[in-house]
Design brief:
The protein is an all-alpha fold. It has helices at residues 4-9, 16-33, 40-64, 72-91, 100-124, 130-149, 155-195. It is 79% helix and 0% strand.
Amino acid sequence: MNTIKENIEYAVKHWWLSLLVGVLFVIAGIMIMFTPIVSYITLSILFSMFLIIAGVLEIIFAVRNKENIAGWGWYLAGGIIDLVLGIYLVVNPVVSMAVLPYILAFWLIFRGISIIAYSMDLKRYNVKGWGWNLFFGIVAILCAIYIFWQPLVGALSIVYLVAFSLIFIGVFRIILAFQLKNIKKKYTHTRIVEEI
């Protein structure tokens, strides 16, 4: 059985995939924010395309790191959920206005819980700044709760909530990518010093 130190010594491969996923979410959030008149159908198509790409990238990240990260299943589950939800929204572009907010809210809750779990993993590895990840996870869940509470507020507020949530999740993934890179660098340096 591998120890945490042995797992980290092998380093987190492909940390840049998390960075790429984060950038995609931020871009999606900004695009949605600056096109508030867009219909729910267009929103679901745009959102679903980003979900499909992010899901594929996250699945690749999880599979490539299943022997290096103890919680790789969270990444895999998140990628699968993104991919399935994205495909569902592409196949059914006429998702009703009443259903789309609930689908997005469930997705945001899962993402928020995943981000909180990632932040706890980072805390165990003594990574500085893990509290920001916790903050972004809580914000994603609060946005989801608001969507559940006010699903009929109208397209405009749903559009902005989705945009802000995507930006928060994207920023989290970007921060996570650099934290994973730092873990890799830190433990690679420690291993070299131990060998000397």
